[in-house]
């Protein structure tokens, strides 16, 4: 019995069901091999499927965000259209000329002109987003159209300043391209030239007619002093110097250099022969009607003296004027006196 048991160590149930055991083992091994083979074979497809799934999720998320933001986008587009003058080139061209002409008339300009120039359609910068054939119409459709206009007016400086303010106060969308001011020779009148550009959205009309805000027009009052000024006007020449009525001392042999009025005392010669150079101050050098002039003032008395080239004052003879200096010929050579100094405060001049 022992020898028989050692000769047959396999359990009896295996010997009885050996065929089923073999089949079960084969199934387990085949399933394992099939799983491993299938896992390797489907890895690329699985990665691609996951990538496609992420892409579809991204597209749907973007579409939802676009749908949620559509109201805000439409509001911005409507707001831009509401600040235009119309939905077409004909309406905008006519409205620009009408409004600018009315402004010039209200400000009292008698010489002015308003013209409109070329128009330029601006397409979308996102053309590459419209790739499909059915989106070609959207790709070629312009976003907006630019219309150029110009205004030229001549008038007083205050009219020109108010015209600039009124053009800026107009509520429609515009961009000032250039502005030029050309005053007349005397500065009494100014010629203003403005080039500007406005836009409109084709097919989108403003919801109401644009009207200038009265509060904006009223704010022009704070610029009244600026509008009333005229920086282009040439100041009038200084009033003529009144002839002196005081006695002016000169050296013997020299002629009086001051015009005196009727009934005024004539200058007399100083008995000592010494001229009081320290009492005479150079107050100005100008180009007068008769040429260069040097203006002197007698400090103690306030008497005025006008010198022209060749006129002597004491031993000094006026030769010319340079910037803020008067050049004199003196016995010892030429000298220069600066405005604000008296005739003793001399600098060496050119010989």
Task: Explain the overall architecture.
By secondary structure, the protein is an alpha+beta fold. 34% of the residues lie in helices and 26% in strands. The chain is built from 9 helices and 12 strands. It has helices spanning 2-7, 12-16, 18-41, 43-82, 89-106, 136-140, 157-169, 214-218, 224-228, and strands at residues 111-123, 142-155, 174-183, 190-200, 280-288, 291-298, 304-307, 312-313, 316-322, 325-330, 333-338, 347-348. Strands 8-9-10-11-12 form a 5-stranded antiparallel beta sheet, with no helix packed on it. Strands 1-2-4-3 form a 4-stranded antiparallel beta sheet. The N and C termini lie far apart (158 Å). Mean pLDDT is 79; it is low at 244-273.
Total beta strands: 12
CATH topology of the largest domain: Alpha-Beta Plaits
Runs with pLDDT <50, length 5+?
244-273
The helix tally amounts to 9
The rounded Rg comes to 49 Å
